[in-house]
Write a structure and sequence with these properties.
Blueprint lengths: L23 H13 L3 E5 L2 H11 L5 E4 L3 H6 L1 H7 L5 E2 H5 L5 H10 L5 E4 L3 E3 L4 E5 L7 H5 L2 E7 L3 E2 L2 H24 L7 E5 L8 E6 L6
Parallel strand pairs: 1-10, 2-3, 2-4, 4-7, 5-8, 7-10
Antiparallel strand pairs: 5-6, 6-9
Amino acid sequence: MSQQKADYADDAEIDETLDQPADDATVEETVANLEERGFDVIVVDDADEALDAVQSQIPAGASVMNGHSTTLEEIGFDDFLSGGDHEWESLPDQIWSIDDDAERQTARRESQTADYFLGGINAIAQTGELVAADLSGSRIGAYPFAAGNVVIVTGTNKIVPTLDDALDRLESVAYPLENERAQEAYGVESAVAKQLIYRRETEEGRTTIVLVRERLGY
């Protein structure tokens, strides 16, 4: 089901103080701390530049999978991937062409080991930690180890001062919005069932964060 954030955002009560684009000084400090923790960071001004940056990261012939991400939808990546105007192996197209439920679930699990796995994040501590969660783990399962490379796209509205603030943002911004989206799309409530605190990337060049100076996703 195609959704826009505007379809459900007004129904969610969130802490607006934890959803504001960061100023330049905050972005600069956050980038420095992320890089010190082993993440590669690309800073761009808007959604169009973000899509260009993502495309530049993925070589021809690579297998590509994306976890659900409102941010990826907003920058146009999901449409680009499904549109086929690229030289990648699109694993979502393969997965959703499978009719058998058990076979499709197996393919979804195998897709966690894609050459490039793309997704979003729910919060970034200015000190350099990333926080994310989902209901099934189909997005965050690839981040720590399974995927060959990870590309995370996020707006600077996800930046908050500390790890405690990042965990607070997960509960008071990301969860209410995702819960409304899930009810709108599937008729069920969501939950912070599986949670990741990504403190450091130990494999050089594996994880790239595309940081967009816009209010994107949640």
